[in-house]
Amino acid sequence: MSVVDCTGFSTRSCKSADVNGSSASKLNISSDQKSNLELSGSRMASVVTVKTEKRPAPADPQDVDSNTKKPRIWEPSMEPSLNLCLPQRKLLPSLKTKRASELVLVIGTGVSSAVAPQVPALRSWKGLIQALLDAANDFDLLEEEESRRFQKSLKDDKNLVHVAHDLIQKLSPRTGNVRSTFFKDCLYEVFDDLECKMENAGKHLLRSVLQLMESGALVLTTNFDNLLEIYAAHQGSKLESLDLTDEKKVLEWAQGKRSLSVLHIHGVYTNPSGIVLHPAGYQNVLRNTEVMREIQKLYETKSFVFLGCGRTVDDTTFQALFLEAVKHKSDLEHFMLVRREDVGEFKKLRDNMLDKGIKVISYGNEYSDLPEYFERLANEICNRDTVTNGWGSPSQEQETQNGFHSQKCLLQDYSS
């Protein structure tokens, strides 16, 4: 195996270098060959992409998306950043110096819609309700008048959580002690085959979330999907989906004993009986003083990082669990990552966010900037944890050379 240190490349040559699976195996860097590499930049203009799998794999033209020029498959912690040579937004010092075990990641609809943009139900509450309505109509589960009433409520943009709750109740009628499973049928219709609808940029974001989880961060979500769990399974990590119906597991999660679990505060579609949209659905948790004490302690002792969250702090379930009983929230330090244009919308809410101890941070101008920003943040935090734990991590000076991460670009010579 031959090793090449790419930190000697200039920024210009880094942008133009093109190394694919077939050429990497025969690469010996010389001045002539370096020129050839620079000329091949039309085929890949971003960075040298490195694969460090233990076993060689033949080059597959399907591994690279011709539109984005980025690898289709991302293996955790094995490849350098996508945009090492591009201008990067600075990371907020008060956030990047956190340890993973000090964080609670709050995943909203923005993350799910980035992972599987072809699924309208993942984009918003309105999208979910519309998808459930469509499924119910397809299965002839609603009378015409009922369908029109729900459609009007959706159009009027009333309290969407209540609209969703009413629809679920309508699709789950009781006959004696038996509850209909029509709602389950509708859920599976709406979230059918999520695995095949996941896109690469979104997987890149999930990789960073998983990286932080494996370093000790907790994760909760308002989403019904299990995209993170699906992605983790493909990476060899088993994540458990929790909901508020299991008080014991929720308590253990809050105590940090189930860090490789995702708490779905509204439930997850694979367990329809755990779907919670109405306060009555989580009274068992609210009445359990031990569970509530541990849950509320999280907001007081850890830093919440809101990803893809618009109005999560206004979510009645989130408020009941984390906000209502917590005093002096403005003294706390939490973070919400938003698009630059979205910062303007949040200005009128900034004071309200600060009252909850939340700093609003811009990750870039476009939604597509979030995966790269969050990857750098995750790497910074996890590398810092490694240094702190004395695991032989590179020094800070080694971590950045010519705008590159500490890890060198390794070109594996499979022909040797």
TrEMBL record:
Family indicated by similarity: Belongs to the FAM118 family.
Domain of life: Eukaryota
Main location: nucleus
Protein name in UniProt: Protein FAM118B
Alphabetized InterPro entries for the sequence: FAM118
Region ranges (Disordered): 15-72
One Pfam family recorded for the sequence: SIR2_2
Keyword Nucleus (UniProt): yes
Role noted for this protein: May play a role in Cajal bodies formation.
Example of a GO cellular component annotation carried by this entry: nuclear body
Keywords linked to the UniProt accession: Acetylation, Nucleus, Phosphoprotein
Polar residues bias spans: 15-39
Subcellular location: Nucleus, Nuclear body
Annotated source species: Salvelinus namaycush (Lake trout)
